[in-house]
Phosphate acyltransferase
Amino acid sequence: MRIAIDAMGGDHAPKVVVEGALAAAKEWTDVEIILVGNTAAIEAHLGERPANLTIRHTEEVIEADDEPVKAVRRKKDASMVVAGKLVREKEAEAMISAGNTGALMTTGLLVVGRIPGIERPALAPMLPTIDGNGVLALDLGANMDATAEHLTQYAIMGSIYRNKVHGIANPRVGLLNVGTEAMKGNELTKAAYPLLEQAPVEFIGNVESRDVLRAGCDVIVCDGFAGNIMLKSLEGAASVFFSVLKTEFTKTWYSKLAAAILKPGIMKFRKQFDYKEHGAGPLLGIQGLVLKCHGSSDANAIKNAVRQARIAIQNDLVGAISAEINHGK
């Protein structure tokens, strides 16, 4: 299997991307990793190259502040775009990038292309939960607006992903809403509820945002506007929580002593809710596997993204989604 990695995408590229790719290449020798980017910049951090790691040279880079559609259309030799072309032309089964999120979604749509029958691809990162298993949330930003039919497709794709990649036999699917009662919500959620009841998923009903991290479901579906607000709220709350904790634990020698005692438990808790441990979020609905890493990902996050891609390819994730969406057509 072949996995293309955008070596120039991300806050710490290409150094951490190369380090993560190297670690993955050494651990999984059945994976051929293609680092896409400037050869000189990549080789500066490469050292001894494993036999299953190659470089595809490119001259251009899509920057974090580039306008996504213009950048993808004009920068034909950008590392992200070339990685997408490798997937489209079947020279790679998957691509990974920590670069510009909007540009990656545009690359998925315009370069790789949608699975026939999919109306809107969805960005589906994992959110941490108290049981450590996480919840797949989609859509968290690929589409600001959605229809009830889109949410139903999100539910199907998310359910298949959790089954194929995480081995959950019957993933529980919840609909993000302001209340648990079936009649609650706006016009979108009210219209989506009966469609989800009829969909080939284990639909458990509405789930309030306060319960998302309590492991009440394995997949949570919503439109990109509500989903992105939920994501940013969770990230902000976590950041404030750990910042306040640090301040309180360094105020007096009593609190410093308490911090020393509690440190192992706190570090375990922080690791459990660290996005780096979850690798990358897939852009589901694309004719090929496209994975988005956090912009500030470290080498471990890149390696974990390769692990995700490897499992998804082995279990024919894209084929399974296509077969289910187009069943009976």
Q: What stands out?
A: The chain is about 45% helix and 15% strand. The first helix runs from residue 15 to 27.
